[in-house]
């Protein structure tokens, strides 16, 4: 099994009002560091628009300052739709890596995280949503906590003979428990 860590949209404008921002970013940064140490490829995904704060190069488009910075061994995917597979080269990058299991974390739970989990599932990948390493913000109808809980309930009920979606905490991720490869 070849595992890959996808870090979705942990960008300045996205994280500005995110629920438990610092805690979530610290967990994601820990995941990134431990993934690298255990040979698990890391892919940073960034959303971009043609104008506004999410335009490539603008301050809001940049990765959040609290997030572990990308290394030269990491990959970057730039997207314009919530699903990280839509109109990007993510699938070909994953094929080059030989990936079959994606660990997903990041923001926003109800948009890009959810859409990417579903896109990966539909593409035949086994998915683990790291349930304490993604976030969103309150909206007019629900709190961030309610949105996150709903997403967990929904995605944990997906099934197929070809792929799965499971939920794990950071502590439950198998390579978080491994001894560091030398």
Mean pLDDT: 96
The helix/strand order is EHHEEHEHEHEH
- Secondary structural class: alpha/beta
Query: Beta fraction of the residues?
Result: 15-25%
Counting DSSP H or I runs of 4 or more residues, the number of helices is: 6
> What characterizes the major β-sheet?
6 strands, parallel
Count of individual beta strands: 6
| Quaternary form | single chain
**Share of helix among residues?**
25-40%
Gap between N and C termini: 20 Å
Widest beta sheet: strand line-up: 3-2-1-4-5-6
Low-confidence stretches: none
In one word, what is the shape? globular
Cα-atom Rg, whole angstroms?
Answer: 15 Å
Please tell me about this protein's structure.
The protein has helices spanning 12-15, 21-37, 90-97, 109-122, 144-155, 174-177; strands at residues 3-8, 42-47, 75-79, 101-107, 126-135, 165-168. By secondary structure, it is of the alpha/beta class. Helix 4 (109-122) runs parallel beside helix 5. The longest helix has 17 residues, at 21-37.
């Amino acid at each position: 099994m070849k595992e890959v860590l996808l870090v979705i949209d942990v960008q300045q404008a996205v994280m500005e009002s995110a629920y438990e921002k610092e805690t979530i970013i610290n967990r994601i940064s820990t995941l990134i560091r431990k993934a690298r140490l255990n040979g698990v490829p890391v892919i940073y995904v960034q959303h971009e628009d043609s104008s506004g704060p999410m335009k490539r190069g603008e301050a809001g488009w940049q990765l959040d300052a609290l997030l572990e910075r990308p290394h030269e061994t990491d990959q970057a995917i730039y997207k314009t739709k919530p699903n990280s597979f839509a109109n990007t080269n993510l699938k070909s990058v994953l094929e080059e890596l030989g990936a079959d299991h994606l660990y997903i974390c990041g923001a926003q739970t109800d948009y890009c995280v959810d859409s990417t989990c579903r896109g990966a599932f539909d593409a035949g990948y086994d998915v683990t949503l790291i349930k304490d390493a993604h976030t969103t913000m309150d909206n007019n109808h629900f709190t961030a906590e309610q949105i996150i809980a709903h997403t967990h309930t929904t995605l944990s009920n997906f099934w197929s003979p070809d792929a799965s979606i499971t939920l794990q905490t950071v502590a439950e991720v198998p390579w978080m428990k491994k001894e560091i490869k030398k």
